[in-house]
Amino acid sequence: MLRCRAKEELERAREYIAGTYYIALQTNSSQAASLCLNQLYELGWRETMDYPEKIRRVTAEQVLEVARKYLDTDRYVQAILVPSSHRQSLPDEQGEED
C-alpha cells in the first residue's frame, strides 16, 4: 500500500493535470483543435470532455505498472543542479573532483 504522502502526491498530480487541461481549453480555437485531433486519432469527440475524469481515475498501481514497463533502473541519468553561489567541488562519476 502507498504511504499517505504518496497518495497525496498522486491526488495533487491528477488534479493538476485535469486542471491545466481545462485551462488549456479556454479558447474556442483550442477546443476546436482538441475536438479535431481526438477525431483524427479515432478517440471520438467525447474524449475532449472525458479526458479529465479518466485522469482522475488513474490509480497508483497503474502508475507503478507503467513505470516498471518503461523506466529501467539500471539505465538512467542523474543530474544535480547546484546554484553557482553554493557550489562546492563535486566529484565526477569516476571520483575525481572538478
Itemize the secondary structure elements and their pairings:
Layout: H1 4-24, H2 28-40, H3 47-56, H4 60-70
Helix pairs in contact: 1-3
Summarize the structure.
The protein has about 100 residues and is mostly helical.
Give me some keywords for this one:
extended, 4 helices, mainly alpha, 0% strand, 56% helix, 98 residues
Helix percent reads 55-70%
Tell me the structural class.
mainly alpha
Strand content: under 5%
Distance between the termini: 43 Å
Tell me the number of helical segments per DSSP (H or I, 4 or more residues long).
4
Indicate the overall shape.
extended
Q: Uncertain runs with pLDDT below 50, 5 residues or more?
A: none
Q: Estimate the mean pLDDT confidence.
A: 88
- Total beta strands: 0
Main sheet specs: none
Describe this structure in words.
The protein is extended, with a radius of gyration of 20 Å. It is built from 4 helices and no strands. With 98 residues, it is mainly alpha-helical.
